[in-house]
Amino acid sequence: MKRVLEAARLAPSWKNLQCWRFIVVCSEESKNGILTAIPDANPGKKAIATAPVAIVLCADPQSSGVMGDRYYYLVDSGIAMEHLVLAASAEGLGTCWIGVFDENIVKSALAIPVGWRVVAMTPLGYPDQESSPRPRKKINEIVFREKWNSNF
Ligand SMILES: Cc1cc2nc3c(=O)[nH]c(=O)nc-3n(C[C@H](O)[C@H](O)[C@H](O)COP(=O)(O)O)c2cc1C
Q: Which one of 97, 100, 130 would you pick to mutate in the ligand 1 pocket, going by the greatest count of ligand atoms within 8 A of its CB?
């Protein structure tokens, strides 16, 4: 757990402002609080319910940049969460990025202050099964050479 959180701590961020906070959820009370925020149809809900730990990523938009319509707290958070996810994977731990939930319910359940956003959460635990890889676009569909749409 310490190594996984340390990987997130070391992530780069806008002006190194480190706008994120990570809440490690272990207790039944806190976990039930965040479970009520996740729609039943969300496949990630079962993983949160069964994992021993959930990590909730919060960010303060005021502690990151805004350039026009680009809100960099989301970029900062995405990088930090991916650091965490990759470090977890290196430890043999499973994660699932969960982005669909009722933010206000999570904030109230975990006493997250006004002004902070809940960007994502993930279960964390040893997976009980191997999931088969989901399809990805081919490299030529997503990588161009020199100009848009030219073959790589
Ligand atoms: C921003 C973001 C939000 C996501 N939200 C959810 C979610 O709410 N529930 C869920 O089960 N999976 C969620 N996922 C997981 C994606 O569905 C999953 O990563 C994608 O289908 C690819 O599958 P793979 O990670 O197994 O390769 C989310 C992933 C991202 C990056």
A: 97
**Ligand 1: which atom is nearest the Cα of residue 44?**
11
Three-state secondary-structure class, residue 78: helix
Supply the residue whose CA is at minimum distance from atom 31 of ligand 1. Answer: 97
Distance of CA 113 to the CA centre of its chain: 19
Pocket of ligand 1 (CB under 6 A): 42-44, 96-100, 134
Residue type, position 59, single letter: A
Q: Nearest CA to 111 among 47, 21, 38, 46?
A: 21
Q: Could you tell me which CATH class the domain 2-142 is placed in? A: alpha beta
pLDDT for residue 129:
86
Is residue 89 predicted with pLDDT exceeding 90? Answer: yes
Which pLDDT score is estimated for 32?
98
d(CA 102, CA 37): 5
DSSP state letter for 119: E
